[in-house]
Write a structure and sequence with these properties.
Largest sheet of chain D: 4 strands, parallel
CATH topology of chain D: Rossmann fold
Structural class of chain D: alpha/beta
CATH architecture of chain C: 2-Layer Sandwich
Chains: A alpha/beta (188), B alpha+beta (382), C alpha+beta (179), D alpha/beta (181)
CATH topology of chain C: Alpha-Beta Plaits
Number of strands of chain D: 4
Oligomer: heterotetramer
CATH architecture of chain D: 3-Layer(aba) Sandwich
Radius of gyration of chain C: 28 Å
Order of helices and strands of chain D: HHEHEHEHEHH
Number of domains of chain C: 1
């Protein structure tokens, strides 16, 4: 914890200790039950699998970082709640990713929002026009960060595996079938 | 900035981009953004054949207020007042989502009393939100009287909340690690009084409106949304529960102390506007149940953790925190880089997903029914 | 078929009657309208209006504010601006070292008896047009020098009217109290 | 900030109006009193303040007592525009159009800080909102607050009446008189 933070409450030693232990780790609670990286070309396959497993789409968002744009898809399930997050890395020079509109029509607006704010192009999207932004908006997409402010993957997600998982792999299938927030809840 | 903001007469950007069906003799009608039934500023481009809608496309962003960009500019405490303005009817839930996401990321333990206070105030706020929806929805359907009754109760609850939180609508009450000030005996007493006052009111609402056959004709079997459509579009909240799926974040992913209370999750499998209507009416009663239980078991203790950080700097990482708002699942995806302001904040507004299924549902219905469907989705457009 | 529709109509008519009964019952209930300019809502307690300065205990013309700028820093909409005169004259009289030590002490303590090192507040302006009434400034104040006003009756013809000079307001209030 | 941009955006709304048919002072005076007592507001809820505008019309505050009960959805039937909420750049042309569609003796209330100045949504490099409705249409009365209480809006209504007729028709509430001025 920073000095600034510690000042008003007279440097709580205990909290500092907790912080020290935590800092190198991932935060205790992330809200995710299964977290995986995917290669862009395998996104559709993975999403189809999630569709068959009765997941619904929570949202599609995008994080701008040094390596490129990380498009983040959140899924959850009504019957057996458990959050699955898919992360796909795409390059800054050519920000293109297949649209999942055909599988989840609800993604259409989320994708348009990402297009608005980051300029990510979703190939196969039927109607990729500005949604929230003024169509006469000039200049770069508003949520792009400046070159100097960009962080890289290890700074943002320390201690996490960044190697893409194949949606055909047993691990993926097993995880999405078994994931449920019950087990992560019991831990905390 | 583009200086010429005047509209050109040949139709603006969205009208030109609108893809009508290939049929002849249809009319393209522009509804909104300044329209009494669109609840805020929503614009819908309709292609109609007589009174029937062939295609509807909502256009939004007329009150886009750059919340996500603001989060990156401001520090965590400075962003506190803003989430409540995203969904101004259920502001406390958004306030809570922001606070809780940061707390989870930092691993803060909130005192129990604070959790109880949060539950009580959030549920009170949920009732005000549903009451307003109830009044406004019936106003859309042509009934003026109910909104007067709804506002009577709403004002009373707002008085209670205002005494504690300081505002009537756009609350900024929760703080990292607790709430900004404690509740007192008068609050408890007034809340109890209000709860016991509300109970017979629900009976009255039922007699006055729910059983009314004019209303029933307007909402029954209108706007059927099958459960699978909800899943495909990610619709949550009363829209989903009106389609027969008893999914509630308070039960599915219990946050705070919700797992200690006994409450039902109302759901109706009629899938129509009536189902959604009844879900909300029942939900208000469930909220009262929760409030009374919480008041009964309110523990003593701190209302904010003693070492609550004034300027939090959560560790690097990301967190997704979801909670149940009046309109559905509110999600906060917070990516932190260990600095004093978030690296990226993504808000999941439930109204956004709920509205996106409108164009599918409204195909082939009458214009008057479209208004009914739109109202039953209960929108606050982000 | 006819029986069914007839039955439906009868039930419908009955539901209307029940509704009318509710209206009739409420017709007799007490009025909830507050006749505004002649009477006001009793529940303004707790409402956060714009901020006001709190006078210090000794002198009602002087604010408690110590010009620490905490409120300026925390304000999300940057609507507070304050300037303070640093007590230069007195610093010149003294040697430097004890003065700085003194200043540290006074900042640490709330009501320091040594008035010398306390920076004098020159102006305190709150541009109410940008305020979002979050109350973070009041909470961040170390000396409790800010409070909420319950003046909700503001309306004017120009927006400059709501750029509030809180220091002169404080002095006006003190004057009023004396009278 | 907003003041710097002022020249850029102005002039926006077309404020030209026709001369009244009977342009004589006493007639206009009587007409103005009539107008002041039956101001018809337009439902122009843009954001949070719209909800407070609704409670202003509802039972507790009951704007009907001052002749302003008929919230008209159409600009053609109203003469008081209560701009309640944030004006995004996307909405700005439509605000101007609605203003221009309102028939001539018309008054504008900017309700809430967002309408006055952009309020809490003003920051450096913001890309989406107009910093104050007075940059695009002329405003008669400002009501600050975020959101203002319905009393504030009632006071605003009185101010419009004052502007029209030159006097305040209703007593000042006790609290406002005693509270710090």
């Amino acid at each position: 914890m920073s000095e600034e933070n510690a000042k008003p409450e007279k440097a709580p030693d205990k909290e500092k200790e907790v912080k020290k232990k935590e800092e190198p780790q991932v935060p205790k609670y992330t809200g995710y039950d299964y977290d995986c990286f995917l290669a862009p070309q395998e996104l559709l396959k993975a999403v189809t699998k999630l569709d068959h497993a009765d997941f619904f789409l929570e949202d599609v968002s995008c994080v701008d970082m040094q390596e490129g744009f990380q498009v983040v898809y959140h899924f959850d399930r009504f019957s057996q709640p458990g959050r699955v997050v898919l992360r796909v890395m795409i390059s800054r020079e050519n920000p293109e990713i297949p649209s999942i509109y055909d599988i989840f029509p609800g993604a259409a607006w989320h994708e348009r929002e990402c297009f608005d704010f980051f300029g990510v192009r979703f190939t196969g999207h039927p109607n990729l026009i500005p949604l929230l932004l003024d169509p006469e908006h000039q200049g770069p997409p508003p949520l792009l960060k400046e070159e100097t402010a960009l962080k890289d993957l290890n700074q943002l997600y320390p201690d996490r595996v960044h190697t893409p998982v194949s949606p055909d792999s047993e691990e993926f299938v097993k995880e999405i079938n078994n994931c449920s927030n019950q087990k992560s809840r019991n831990q905390s | 900035m583009n200086l010429d903001l005047r509209l050109d007469t040949s139709g603006d950007f969205y009208a030109r981009k609108f893809q009508p069906t290939k049929r002849e003799d249809t009319l393209i009608l522009n509804m909104g953004p300044q329209h009494p039934s669109t609840h805020g500023v929503l614009r819908i481009i309709l292609e109609i054949d007589g009174e029937y809608i062939l295609r509807a496309e909502p256009v939004l962003g007329y009150i886009h207020r750059m919340h996500e960009k603001m989060a990156e500019v401001m520090s965590y405490p400075q962003y506190l007042p803003n989430p409540a303005r995203t969904d101004y009817l259920h502001g406390l839930a958004w306030n809570w989502a922001h606070v809780a996401a940061v707390e989870r990321l930092m691993g803060l333990e909130v005192p129990e009393r604070a959790e109880y206070i949060r539950v009580i105030t959030c549920e009170l706020n949920r009732i005000t939100s549903h009451l307003l929806w109830w009044g406004a929805y019936l106003l859309d359907l042509g009934a003026f009287t109910p909104i007067m009754y709804a506002f009577d109760d709403r004002e009373r609850i707002q008085d209670i909340l205002q005494r504690i939180t300081g505002s009537r609508l756009t609350y900024c009450y929760y703080r990292f690690g607790g709430v900004s000030n404690d509740i007192d005996d008068r609050f408890i007493e007034e809340t109890r009084k209000q709860c016991s006052r509300m109970k017979p009111r629900f009976k009255m609402f039922k007699d006055l409106v729910t059983d009314n056959f004019i209303l029933r004709k307007r909402v029954e079997e209108i706007g059927e949304i099958p459960a699978d459509t909800c899943r495909k579009y990610g619709a949550t909240g009363p829209v989903l529960r009106g389609s027969g799926v008893p999914y509630d974040v308070r039960r599915a992913e219990p946050y705070s102390v919700y797992d200690r209370f006994d409450f039902n999750i109302p759901s109706y499998d009629t899938c129509d506007a009536m189902g959604r209507y009844l879900v909300r009416m029942d939900e208000m009663q469930e909220s009262i149940k929760i409030i009374e239980q919480a008041l009964d078991t309110l523990p003593e203790g701190d209302y904010i953790m003693p070492k609550a950080p004034k300027k939090p700097k959560p560790p690097a990482g990301d967190v997704y925190f979801a909670l149940e708002g009046a309109r559905g699942k509110i999600g906060f995806h917070l990516v932190s880089d260990g600095d004093k302001s978030p690296y990226r904040l993504k808000l999941r507004a439930p109204g956004f997903s709920n509205l996106s299924l409108f164009s599918e549902v409204s195909e082939g219905v009458l214009i008057a029914d479209a208004v009914s469907i739109l109202g039953s989705l209960d929108l606050v457009i982000p | 078929m006819i029986v069914k529709s007839l039955r439906e109509t009868m039930l419908g008519m009955w539901s209307l009657l029940v509704g009318m009964k509710v209206t009739a019952v409420n017709f007799k209930s007490t009025q909830i309208t507050v006749h505004y300019p002649r009477e006001v809502v009793h529940s303004l307690e707790g409402y956060r209006g714009h901020i006001e300065l709190v006078p210090s205990d000794e002198d009602p013309y002087k604010p408690k504010c110590i010009a620490c700028n905490n409120c300026v820093r925390i304000c999300p909409s940057a609507c507070i601006s304050l300037t303070a005169i640093k007590p230069k004259k007195k610093a010149a009289e003294k040697t430097e070292a004890p003065d700085s030590a003194d200043e540290v002490k006074t900042k640490g303590k709330k009501e320091a008896p040594a008035k010398k090192a306390k920076p004098e507040l020159e102006s305190f302006v709150c541009d109410y047009n940008y305020c979002c009434l979050c109350g973070l400034c009041v909470q961040s104040c170390p000396t409790g020098a800010l409070r909420y006003s319950s003046n909700v009756y503001l309306a004017g013809f120009t927006r400059q009217e709501f750029v509030l000079d809180l220091l002169s307001r404080l002095q006006n209030q003190a004057q009023k109290k004396e009278q | 900030m907003a003041q710097e941009n002022q020249d850029l955006i102005r002039p926006f709304a077309d404020t030209a109006t026709d001369e009244p048919i009977i342009n004589q002072a006493p007639v206009q005076k009587i007409l103005n009193i009539c107008r002041a007592m039956s101001l018809w507001p337009m439902t122009f809820g843009l954001a949070c303040c719209a909800i407070e505008m609704m409670s202003f019309g509802m039972a507790r505050f009951d704007s009907a007592r001052f002749g302003a009960e008929v919230f008209r959805p159409s600009p053609r039937q109203s003469d008081l525009i209560i701009v309640a909420g944030t004006i995004s750049r996307k909405m700005a042309p439509l605000v101007v159009r609605l203003y221009e569609q309102t028939p001539a003796p018309k008054w504008v209330i900017a309700m809430g800080n967002c309408a006055i100045s952009g309020g809490p949504f003003v920051y450096k490099n913001q890309y989406g909102i107009v910093e104050g409705v007075d940059l695009i249409i002329p405003v008669d009365v400002y009501i600050p607050g975020c959101p203002p209480r319905p009393e504030g809006l009632l006071e605003g209504l009185f101010q419009v009446q004052k502007k029209l007729t030159g006097r305040r028709w209703w007593p000042l509430p006790e609290q406002a008189r005693t509270s710090d001025k």
